[in-house]
Amino acid sequence: MDLVIRNGTIVTASDVFKADVGISGEKITAIGHGLTGEREIDAEGKLVFPGMIDPHVHMALPFGGTVSADDFKDGTVAAACGGVTTIIDFAIQAKGKSLAETVEARRAEADPDVCIDYGLHPAITDFTPEVLAEVPEMIAAGMPTFKLFMTYEGWAVDDGTLFATLEAAGANGGMVGVHAENYKLLMYLIERLVAEGKTAPRYHAESRPDFCEAEAVARAILWAEQTNSPLYFFHLSSRAGLEYIIASRDRGFPIYAETCTQYLLLTDERYDEPDFGGAKYVMSPPLRKEADQKALWRGLATGDIQVVGSDHCPFTMEQKRLGEEVFTKIPNGAPGVETTLPLLYSEGVGKGRISLNRLVEVFSTNPAKLFGLYPEKGTIAVGTDADLVIFDPDREVTISVENLHMKADYTPYEGMKVKGYPVITISRGEVICEHGQFKGEAGRGRFIARKRITRI
Ligand code: URP
Ligand code: ZN
């Protein structure tokens, strides 16, 4: 064998057991005891996870007159250092372009730079009969999941588009994922706040209240139930939205939700940080209240929320200052791809909110299943891709922008102490990150043609 990870504690979504993992080429070829190989890594006292899968990142995203700060190279180096071995980004349709052209252009950006494996969700913004006809073609070409924005100027889709795409994706083994916020309502609230002179970052949150998300969640669920199609909610932030999801799941519908560490760990008090500091947290949906956090943690533990993603969309403070005069001009998003695993471990497993197995399930196995990557990715078994994270459960780290690889010049978690940190990341048998040092090469990552989704 080329590489053996010895004496580690293997954690999958269902098991925790001590064994060696043997790797030949890009695959796991043995799990057992006393394995030997050309290179051996001693993982005594460490956890061995399947590589984490972040299904929601935005590298080099043009937004609000600027572009998110991590390109595919910077962002995937950071991902690797945070224990993530697969990302799914978006190919957002420009007006008048086909989905095929959109994907081709996005792949031309990503392929030369990407350091870990990746997939793309086509995002429909300009719906026509021709675009609808492309939905089954995209699924057959390895992109079974589509993003529809229910908000944002130029990207928001109408209910007809959502209904038709749900039907087409659901009938062909695919799935629609939505950014759920009521666009018209939030635009009305924005106009009202700005007219009242309420232009500081704090008013970003006030312009997008929880009921704005909940209404969009309820509406999308109604169309999904009518079309009998699976539906995924990206970055769910509110208890009010979660309640609609739970009710539909209780009726037996395949409705899925992702939340993000920012909604689990931060609250809207952050918008009051001095010196324009609140801009760091301007993201959509916005940060919420403690009651929402509690509901999200509970949903994660009970299974009503199936996935954690980062919604990694970093901007520097200079970029955020585009909105110094009015919050509507602050580019939306925050860095997170590198910090999700340590935060989820420390705040989730470490504080007894979720089990070790559940951590692997929500950040690796479930995204693999829901997004057509399983079983090659998302678990540790003979025959699967050797995407692995060696994780030191005792390593104490103070999260700081100084020791992260993401290109934003801040982290929302500055100064937060975590116990447990990834120490080695392996992608298809190659050690690509060791103790915070990236060892791989740009362009080594592959575009993964994903299969049809597995309903969970
Ligand atoms: O504020 C956010 N979330 N920015 C990224 C784009 C999106 O909505 O996912
Ligand atoms: Zn979104």
Walk me through what this model shows.
The mean pLDDT is 98. Helix content is 31%, strand content 23%. Strands 1, 2, 3, 4, 5, 16, 17, 18 and 19 form a nine-stranded mixed beta sheet that branches. Strands 11-12-13-14-15 form a five-stranded parallel beta sheet. It has 13 helices and 19 strands. A hairpin with a 2-residue loop joins strand 17 and strand 18 (430-434). The protein has two domains: 3-49 and 379-438, Roll (Urease, subunit C, domain 1), CATH 2.30.40; 51-370, TIM Barrel (Alpha-Beta Barrel). Bound molecules: N-(aminocarbonyl)-beta-alanine (URP) and zinc ion (ZN). N-(aminocarbonyl)-beta-alanine (URP) is lined by residues 58, 179, 283-284, 311, 313, 332-333.
Topology, pairings included?
Blueprint: E1 3-11, E2 16-24, E3 27-32, E4 39-42, E5 47-50, E6 52-54, E7 62-63, E8 66-67, H1 72-81, E9 84-92, H2 99-110, E10 117-123, H3 129-140, E11 145-149, H4 159-171, E12 175-179, H5 183-195, H6 202-207, H7 210-227, E13 231-233, H8 239-250, E14 255-259, H9 261-265, H10 290-302, E15 307-308, H11 317-320, H12 340-349, H13 356-370, E16 388-398, E17 417-427, E18 430-434, E19 437-438
Parallel strand pairs: 1-4, 1-5, 6-9, 9-10, 11-12, 12-13, 13-14, 14-15
Antiparallel strand pairs: 1-2, 2-3, 5-16, 7-8, 16-17, 17-18, 18-19
Helix pairs in contact: 3-4, 4-7, 7-8
